[in-house]
Specification:
The chain is of the alpha+beta class. It is built from two helices and four strands, in the order ααββββ. A hairpin with a 2-residue loop joins strand 2 and strand 3. 9% of the residues are buried.
Length: 97
Amino acid sequence: MKKHVFGTVAILLLCSLIFASCGRSTEELAEEVRASIEETFKERGMTIKINDFSLIKKSKNEYKGVLDVTYSEINETYTVSVLVDGDKIMWEIDNLY
């Protein structure tokens, strides 16, 4: 009986670890945010080229990123703040204006 209970607990623990790791990776989140940034600028009639964009995890649902863009032949680098709440993503380019 003890072996059966231990085996069941071990399986439940393994399942919870698998499901907990099913969230998006930092790289996947960076791709989603990058696409959203590109789409937002496009919708506003602005043509930008994103040269590089990367994120690092700051806390459970908060990320900081570095965005390197070219706009009107001028290269600029900005920091980006990202908040994630489940499937919802909110980003803000710091000091854009």
